[in-house]
Amino acid sequence: MFRLIRYFSIASLIAFFIAILIVTYLSRSIAISDMVQIREQSNIELAQLLGNLVWSEYGDFITSATTLDSETLIKSPQFIEFDAAIRLNTAGLSIIKIKIFAPDGMTIYSSNVEDMGVDASQKKGFVDAVQYGVASELIYRDTFNAFEGAVVDRNIVESYVPIYTHNRETLVGVLEVYEDVTPLMRVIFVRQLRIIMGLFTVFTLLYIILFYVVRYADRILNGQAAEIQLKNAELALINDKLKAANQLATEATRLKSEFLSTMSHELRTPLNAIIGYSGIITEGITGDVNGRTLGMIQKIHQSGEHLLGLINDILDISKIEAGRMEIVEDKMSVTAVIENVHSQIQVLADKKQLVFDIAIDAKMPHLLLGDSDRIKQILINLLSNSVKFTDNGTVSLNADWHDNKVVFKISDTGIGIPPHALDYIFDEFRQVNSTSTRTYQGTGLGLAIVRKFTEAMQGTVTVESRFGNGTTFTVTLPLREVHTQTSLAS
Amino acid sequence: MPKPQLQFVGMSVVIVDDDLYSLDIAEILLEAAGAVVYTAENGQLGLKKIETVKPQLIVSDISMPVMDGWELIQQIKQNVALKQIPIVALTAHAMSGDREKVLAAGFHNYLSKPLNPSTFAQDLYEIIIDHPAFNTAKKE
After folding, report:
1. With CB atoms 3.0 to 4.6 Å apart as the test, which of A221, A282, A316, A454 could cross-link to A459 if both were Cys?
2. A411/A42 Cα distance (integer angstroms)
3. pLDDT at res. A218
4. Is the bond preceding residue B114 a cis peptide, omega within 30 degrees?
5. To 10 degrees, what angle do helices B20-32 and B120-128 make?
6. Residues A203, A209, A211, A217: what is their CA dihedral angle, to the nearest 10 degrees?
7. How many CA atoms lie within 13 A of A449 on its CB side?
8. Minimal C-alpha gap between B91 and chain A (Å)
9. Are A160 and A169 in contact (CB under 8 A)?
10. CA–CA distance, B90 with A272 (Å, rounded to integer)
11. Would you call A285 and B117 a contact, using CB atoms and an 8 Å cutoff?
């Protein structure tokens, strides 16, 4: 079963967590960077302002301060005044310390006397400021010596701001401004918290909505899976039923063919009597018979033969259907089979004064592997049909050897077959016109047998006809040539 | 009405068939052709008749009760006195496969049932005319 919800929950939790981390980190970085930039700008302005306020009075002193040593400097009254001025002008601002460096890096002023005289020329901030115009950094101090003394836990932006002469040509010194941004940092922090809470809320809502969606999908999928199982079970049942039905059908066919086989044997016995005795009488073997009686006996004989033909046809068909008809593959000659057929059909053709033509391809092999009896029956069925349905003209039989196949063409100039009938003439017991059974006697099985035999020999049979204009049947049989070693002396 | 030809004048023939009509018809036709005909309803009775009569020709059906055609010919071929008598089979199954079987069993040839009354005698004559025993036995 699907565990969509579980996977979904785990995946979304991880996704949300990562998203919050990224967003928090990014927004904090941006906020801090923005803040530092802004404070730096303000530091520059403040430095400028301070310079404007203080430099005019104490500028020369500052410049000359580089020559004095720290101890002396600190005690000088101008220094003290300067220091006081600085403190006064920065009171109430967020600037909590100032240092002034000489152009060579010497600390010439600091609100924290300990810094005095320290060389800052190597400090990165100092160097960068001289080079680029300003350098700032956000730092954190546990304790810090500010104007008012020691302070604790401060976030500070320290900026190095270079001071130039009025025409901006000569570097006079570098101012280092320390600005307390602790409150601002707190604001940033609070904002972070708000962002996180906001994200959290949004994600929770999203999760709830998606949870229901996923649960719904999960249900559907489970339902589908269950349906599929049901369908499979149904199909299995149907399959079993089909198998059983198939077995029944096979058994029924087998029984039917056995029955027919037995029945036809039983039917032949009285038929022997009918055909035999009526034949003997008509032959005059048991004495002369008068014309009228003879005529009647002859009709009995003909009916008997007809009945025999029907039984044979039915038996053939049932054998094929039961799969019991074995096609014999023996050495045979097409010429011999045709000769066999010739006389039989010639008699029928002569009776109706039809021309019977035969043509055998010169390329026809002498010996082929095939079932001569069945081929003979195919030809007889088709030819006798042709004779039956032709009132005047020609019936012809052509045997060709083409593409390693024997192709028989049986054509006539008879009444033809209407187009709609072409579909079903090969079906069992079908005749073109049921009324024609009166005029044209037949079992209706002749063509069915032709087709079944042909198919059993892996061949094909086709028909072309124009109603009123003759018919041609084409039987193609793939028979293998037998190559006999022709002896020189024969 | 064409008179039947007397192809079998002076010949004795035993016909074995369980189909009484068939038996009767064959008898009538061969007698009309001049033969002296003896009949039997199954292989066993046939064998007895053959041993008694010692005919010049045997005509036998295949499927019969008690003893069928296959067994009958076996018995005859094993009998020194009888084995040279030509036997022709009568069979309702006239398919090529059966032909081999029939010849292999020792039958000289076969004719299909149902018998054609107008041609039976001539057909039978034609298929046995080449048998050596028949040639010497027939009195011209």
Report:
1. A454
2. 116
3. 84
4. yes
5. 80
6. -140
7. 28
8. 12
9. no
10. 13
11. yes
For residues B10-33, b (16+ Cβ closer than 10 Å) or e, as one string? ebebbbbbbbebbbbbbbbbbbbb
ipTM metric: 0.86
Quote the minimal CA–CA distance from B44 to chain A in Å.
21
pLDDT at B1: 43
Can you give the C-alpha Rg of chain A in angstroms?
60
- Asked if B65 reaches chain A (Cβ–Cβ under 8 Å), the answer is no
C-alpha–C-alpha distance, residues A148 and A91, integer Å: 10
Gyration radius (Cα) of chain B, Å:
14
Residue A96, H or E segment: strand A95-101
**Chain B positions in Cβ-Cβ contact with residue A284 (cut-off 8 Å):** 1-3
Tell me whether strands A107-110 and A135-146 are parallel, antiparallel or unpaired.
unpaired
Alpha helices (H) in A65-181, listed in sequence order: 70-75, 77-90, 124-132
Residue B134 clears pLDDT 70, i.e. is over it: no
So what's the pLDDT on residue B56? Answer: 92
- The overall pTM is greater than 0.90: no
Quick check: B95 contacting A, CB < 8 Å? Answer: yes
Q: Is B28 part of the contact surface with chain A (CB cutoff 8 Å)? A: yes
Which tens digits make up the pLDDT trace of B64-81? Answer: 888 988 999 999 999 988
The answer on pLDDT for B140 being more than 60 is: no
Average pLDDT on B23-36 reads: 93
Token code pair at residue A472: 């041609």
Q: Which residues contact A100 (CB under 8 A, 6 or more apart)?
A: A62, A107, A108, A109, A110, A173, A174, A175, A176
* A397 in contact with B, Cβ within 8 Å: no
- Indicate the SS3 state at residue A189: helix
| Cβ <8 Å between A276 and B4 | no
Instruction: With beta carbons under 8 A apart, name residues in chain B contacting A268.
Output: 92, 113-114
Q: Which of A167, A188, A174, A80 is nearest to A118 (CA)?
A: A174
Task: Provide block-wise average pLDDT over 10 residues at a time, chain A (490 residues).
Answer: 75 89 90 90 83 74 70 78 83 85 83 80 86 88 84 89 76 86 90 90 89 86 89 94 92 78 78 91 87 91 87 76 72 87 88 92 89 89 90 92 92 87 78 54 77 90 88 92 62
